[in-house]
Amino acid sequence: MIREQEFMDKLSETRRYIIEKINMEPQMGIILGSGLGGFVELIEDKVSIPYQEIPNFPVSTVEGHKGQLVFGKVLGKPVVAMQGRFHFYEGYPMQEVTFPVRVMQVLGVSGLIVTNAAGGINPAYRPGDLVLLKDHINMMGDNPLRGANLSNLGPRFPDLSEGYDLEWRQKALTIAREVGIYPQEGIYAAMSGPSYESPAEIRFLRTVGADLVGMSTVPEVIVANHGGMRVLGISCVTNMAAGILSQRLSHAEVMETAERIEKQFVRFVQALVKGLA
Ligand code: R1P
């Protein structure tokens, strides 16, 4: 179980290590989902720090998640991007899965764009669609805030009634149209994975109102909200979920679709950083 002082000490050590390497204060954080890491090509005056060099950082083990923090500027705005995230199914406890969000918080980040590759449940979706998240359903069986509250970082019982900031969502829709993108809006259900969901689980998720399913994002969003950040969530529909179409699922397909829509995704996130920061 997490001890507050121990956690804060770790966080300070990580922060100290990072601020010695960068000479900027990132304003916005971006978490790049499976196959979407190419966004970092766009970051200027880059300082990239591999996760294995950062004290107290876990290491990404999933294909399509390179494993580095990239600091720099996007259209003049100071950002930090996670090229690769940590998933609960990799075996990390929730506090480790979300440790980078805490690091962003203590570096001064006040807004987070969190992205993922997701399976489409809503039959109106097609692989390749971008979806702005309006809410989530936590089906992971755990919560990153379990344990002693980190009272220096946020409240015991954070409100999630606008876990995905409404004003940002509205602005994001306008910004999307300006760059010729027409995203869907939907609710993301997070499962623990790593097995993909069964057709019966997908029918269940559809019944309870989920439009998309994946194995990430929700822990990060909970911690970001706890830390007082504004959050925007974007899913790339990389495949239809089990049982929606009669085809089998694979991470190779997830990566392939993510790569196919990466250019459009990058254009959108770039415009968002400019418009929201
Ligand atoms: C499954 O193909 C993987 O893709 C998604 C799922 O969560 C799972 O990790 O990855 P991201 O959510 O990290 O984009």
Automatic annotation (TrEMBL):
Function: The purine nucleoside phosphorylases catalyze the phosphorolytic breakdown of the N-glycosidic bond in the beta-(deoxy)ribonucleoside molecules, with the formation of the corresponding free purine bases and pentose-1-phosphate. Cleaves guanosine, inosine, 2'-deoxyguanosine and 2'-deoxyinosine.
Pathway assigned to this chain's UniProt record: Purine metabolism; purine nucleoside salvage
Binding site for a purine D-ribonucleoside: E197, N239
EC number of this enzyme: 2.4.2.1
Database matches in Gene3D superfamilies: Nucleoside phosphorylase domain (3.40.50.1580)
Alphabetical GO biological process terms: nucleoside metabolic process
Residues given in the record as phosphate binding sites: S34, H65, R85, F86, H87, A117, S216
Gene Ontology molecular-function annotations: purine-nucleoside phosphorylase activity
Subunit structure: Homotrimer.
PANTHER family documented for this protein: METHYLTHIOADENOSINE/PURINE NUCLEOSIDE PHOSPHORYLASE, PURINE NUCLEOSIDE PHOSPHORYLASE-RELATED
GO terms under cellular component: cytoplasm
InterPro entries for the chain: Nucleoside_phosphorylase_d, Nucleoside_phosphorylase_sf, Pur_Nuc_Pase_Ino/Guo-sp, Purine_phosphorylase, Purine_phosphorylase-2_CS
UniProt keyword terms in alphabetical order: Glycosyltransferase, Phosphoprotein, Transferase
Protein name: Purine nucleoside phosphorylase
Pfam family, one: PNP_UDP_1
Nucleoside phosphorylase domain boundaries: 28-274
Entry's family note: Belongs to the PNP/MTAP phosphorylase family.
EC class name: transferase
Catalytic reaction(s) noted: a purine 2'-deoxy-D-ribonucleoside + phosphate = a purine nucleobase + 2-deoxy-alpha-D-ribose 1-phosphate
